[in-house]
């Protein structure tokens, strides 16, 4: 894992991206720029650029954040127990730089049964050429 200190991330990221990606924050539902993106391409980590999700796996879950039924590879995501805010959840992070992405829930489509609920600000999108 590629670990950088907080000063590096504060310099590289906007205040909003730092709050979500490095301090495990959450953007407001239905506010993210990638929520309604319908282009085909790859979603990668805002912090380090590692490829995380394909548009093939994106779907509209109605939850207010971009949702995917699977990552590009199982190895690109790190899973952590999250008992914050009086809930029991599984946090998802980039396996390369440890950036907070969002959470995974067991209420996804029948393809995998999983919903990767991801903050738009933690993702970069590159459209297919």
Automatic annotation (TrEMBL):
GO cellular component terms listed in the entry, alphabetical order: cytoplasm
Cofactor needs: Zn(2+)
Residues in the signal sequence: none
InterPro entries for the chain: Met_Sox_Rdtase_MsrB (IPR028427), Met_Sox_Rdtase_MsrB_dom (IPR002579), Mss4-like_sf (IPR011057)
Binding site for Zn(2+): 45, 48, 94, 97
Broadest EC class assigned to this enzyme: oxidoreductase
Domain of life: Bacteria
Entry's EC annotation: 1.8.4.12
GO biological processes: protein repair; response to oxidative stress
Active site: 117 (nucleophile)
Record's cofactor remark: Binds 1 zinc ion per subunit. The zinc ion is important for the structural integrity of the protein.
Swiss-Prot/TrEMBL keywords: Metal-binding, Oxidoreductase, Zinc
Record-stated family: Belongs to the MsrB Met sulfoxide reductase family.
Protein name: Peptide methionine sulfoxide reductase MsrB
Organism: Photobacterium aquimaris
Name of the encoding gene: msrB
